[in-house]
Structures are given as structure tokens and as C-alpha cells.
Amino acid sequence: MPLDLAFSIEANDFVDPDRAYDLYWSGVITSKKAFICPGADCSAQVTCANLDKDVQNMKVVPHFRVIGAHSGGCGIPEEAPFKEVIEPAAPESRERQTVDQSIVDVFKLDRPDSYYEERKLDPGADVQVAKKLAKARKPYTPKLGEKGPSGPVYSVRSIVSRYIRYREDGSIEFRRLNILGQDVLYSSIFKCIWEQDLEDLPKYPVIYYGWAYVDRTKNDKAYRIKFKKSLKQGGENLVTSTFVSDSLIDSFKLKNLMAVRLSKVCKKPIPTAFVFLYGQPSVKVYNERNYATFELTNLDMIDVNYDCPLPSKYDK
Ligand SMILES: [Zn+2]
Fold it and tell me: Could you list the pLDDT tens digit for every one of the 316 residues in the chain?
């Protein structure tokens, strides 16, 4: 059973694999081995696999793996597999409610300032004491430190990553994501850009995806991401695109990840990427032509992949 959470010695906090990945690419975490079991008083070593990969897909997704032996009193090894946990014998019991709540992830459109904060442990500090203090800082998650809910989701990339992990562990049909107060099933989160009329699209932001060409704009100050398929208005095809400016990349904590991915795609013989973005298209007029564009305020709202990271039914 993979762990949902581990204690990061470098960040001095409990982290889920998504946050571990963010902290690695923002430079707070430097080693994939500097984690231990989240269980109280347990020192089993934990590795976060794929932390250093700029790729993620069905085979490469960041996840925790226990390397060392759990201590005697650690309850984590005996945890029941996910399916048994979410189908308890007494469906009306309080446990059931807890579990129901625990499988909704919350998508937050802004990260708290403390997200990338480092609370470096002094060399020689007692890790178990640090773990207790970290647990006390998070009163809102009573199950923290055991196998339990992960933290909120702050990026489209993490949603893709969780989709892959939940599909792997067989829990996808029970998982929901709460976006601006609305619960959506993980299995119905993504919407392909495929010649839909703007009138028929949701009147609120959702996660759109599709293959796109990536190149530099004429003034060389931004990347242009132009989807292969167009949205429509009336009978008219609208070129559908979004722009990622260099200044937006520069102000982004994970700029290394974003810069690596975009520049690698641009250098491919056919510079295409599989792109997800959270937003709502609007129509812009340029040189008397109509275009559909997505405005990005924050690079957490876009995920650029070298290939389709999802099952083949999405790869179109
Ligand atoms: Zn343990």
C-alpha cells in the first residue's frame, strides 16, 4: 500500500507526493531519500520516487515508497487497502462519514504564503519531536500522520498526477474534486478541446486539454500554445490558444519545471505538447479575425506535457 503522506526532513513538514514534487522543483527539497514514515515515533525511511523527473504519465508519477522497516508500534503497515476502507460494514456509521469526506480533494486557486516555506531542522534535531510539532501546526487534519487525506490541490499538474495515482490504486471512481464549492468526479474532470461551439461550453472555468503547438511569439517575449483543434462560434472556426510570457515564468516558483518543459517542447522536430489548463475561453479580435483565448493568471493553472499522460482514450 503506497503512502499518501510522508514526513519531509528537509521541509520539516508532512507532505503528499504533489507537494514533495513542488518543493523539489522550487529547491526546498534536494534529496528524494530525505523522508520518513509519518507514523508517530516511526523512523522507517521513505523515498519519493520520480521526484526529479520533468515528465509525468501513467508510468512516471511521484509517489512514496517505504524503504526501511516500520517501528513496532507503527500502525501504518497494517492499514487496510483503500477499497476496504471505503466500504465499511455499517454504512451509516460515523467512520463512513469521515471516509466520504476524506475522498474529496479541494482544488484551491491560490497557494498559501506558507506553501514553499522552509523550516529547516537543525542538524542533530530529534526528527520525532519535529514530527509532533509539525502535526500540532495542522489541527485541521486529525488523521494527519496516519494514512489519511492528502492536502488540498493547488495546480492542474497535481490534479493530473492525482488522477493517475487514483487510477493506479483503484480508487478513481470514489474520488471527487471540489472546485469553487462544486464537487466533480475525477473521472469527469477533463474536457477535450474539440470543435465545440463556445455557446455549448460551461459558463464557468473547467480543465480543458488537447494537443497543441508550442512556439515563441514574434516579439520573443512569450510562448504561444496553439491547440490543434479549434473552438467554434456560429459556424466559424476560431484559432484557440493561450500565451505564457517569460515574465510569468520568471515570477513562478516552479519556473525551472515550466522553463524546462516549454523549451524542450520548442526544440522538438514537431513542437507539440499535450496541454491541460484550467480556465474559460473568451473571444479576442485581432486584425479583424476572431480568436478563442485562455487567459492565464498563474502557471499553476496550466500543465504542459511531452506526451499524453493519461490513458489512450484521452490521447486525441
Ligand atoms: Zn511506520
Answer: 568 889 999 999 988 899 999 999 999 999 999 999 988 889 999 999 999 999 989 889 999 999 989 998 887 776 544 443 444 334 444 444 444 444 788 999 998 888 888 778 888 889 999 988 888 776 544 444 444 456 789 999 999 999 998 888 888 888 889 998 888 888 888 999 999 999 999 999 999 999 999 999 999 999 999 999 999 999 999 999 999 999 999 999 999 899 999 999 999 999 999 999 999 999 999 999 999 999 998 899 999 999 999 999 999 8
Tell how far the Cα of 44 is from the centroid of ligand 1, in angstroms: 5
Whether residue 65 lies inside any domain: the answer is yes
Cβ-Cβ contacts under 8 Å for 77 (sequence gap 6 or more): 70
Compute the distance from residue 245 Cα to the ligand 1 centre, in Å: 44
Give the global pTM. Answer: 0.86
Structural domain includes residue 1: no
| Spacing, Cα 51 to ligand 1 middle (Å) | 21
Give the distance (Å) from ligand 1 centre to CA of residue 71: 6
Q: How far is the CA of 24 from the centre of ligand 1 (A)?
A: 23
Q: Look at residue 45 and tell me if it is in a domain.
A: yes
Whether 129 and 179 share a structural domain: yes
- Say yes or no: 174 and 215 in one domain: no
Distance, CA 15 to ligand 1 centroid (Å)?
15
Domain enclosing residue 287, as ranges: 189-314
Q: What is the rounded CA–CA span in Å between residue 65 and residue 50?
A: 11
Measure 238 CA to ligand 1 centroid, in angstroms: 54
The tally of domains found in the chain comes to: 2
Domain ends where: 157, 187, 217? 187
3-state SS, one letter per residue, for 122-175: CCCCCHHHHHHHHHHCCCCCCCECECCCCCCECCHHHHHHHHHHHHHCCCHHHC
